[in-house]
Amino acid sequence: MGKFEYSLGLNELKSKELRLWQALIGEFLGTLILNFFACGACTQVEDGTFKALAFGLSIFMAITIVGHLSGGHVNPAVTVGMLVAGRISFLRALFYIVFQCLGAIAGTAAVRILIDRDYYNGLGHTSLAQNITELQGLGIEFFLGLLLVLTVFGACDPHKPDSRYTAPLAIGMAVTLGHLGTIRYTGASMNPARTVGTAFATDNWTSHWVYWAGPILGGVAAALIYTQVLEAKPVPKTAEAADKYRTHADERELRKLEGTRDYA
């Protein structure tokens, strides 16, 4: 029963510590930052490169600010990937997704309230291009979710401690790359919560399922691929490594002495 409670996350609800609530506030703030600044950038210009940088930098900043509280998921696709990999409990994942969506809605709503209607320019809402079908959009968003979640797992691999220092930048660059490659075709959501925020603000839910199914399926595939194939091997224990090094060093010294011994 204890193991079931742990997997489900009931132990976190019973805890008197504020860690879960702090994490949920962190996820809310992270998606609020993303939608406020990145969608705000979309109201100013049509240039895809400008938008790509805005989304990448927003994710970089959001993870830097709240990553220590929640892990800096800021995306349901990342959260579901972590759930599949057994890194978080079911209830924590569910709460994360709810607060991510609320944060995205709040961020886009703030943009809508603070600027004049003449500047809306769609408020950065994602939509399929004219000649892109829903299945094509699903495939594009699948690969976007795959790229992002693979980057998250690679950057946060516990057996690659050095990569953790650059994780926010690496994840932000993955978001930038995704936008540079596909923004013309689907709007490059990569993030169901981000699209919920703009869909709510614009009341446009056309093909909305694509922006949930695509990134989440990509995230699940990425979690399985990384944990089963790509995950770094554990570093040998310090004591064992030291003993192995000493053995090799002693052997080298012995050979050196034997090679220079004077037999006269």
TrEMBL record:
The chain crosses the membrane at residues 20-38, 50-72, 93-115, 135-153, 165-185, 209-227. The keyword Heme does not apply. Keywords: Cell membrane, Membrane, Transmembrane, Transmembrane helix, Transport. One of its GO terms (cellular component) is plasma membrane. It comes from the Eukaryota. GO terms for molecular function: channel activity. Belongs to the MIP/aquaporin (TC 1.A.8) family. This is Aquaporin AQPcic. It comes from Drosophila pseudoobscura pseudoobscura (Fruit fly).
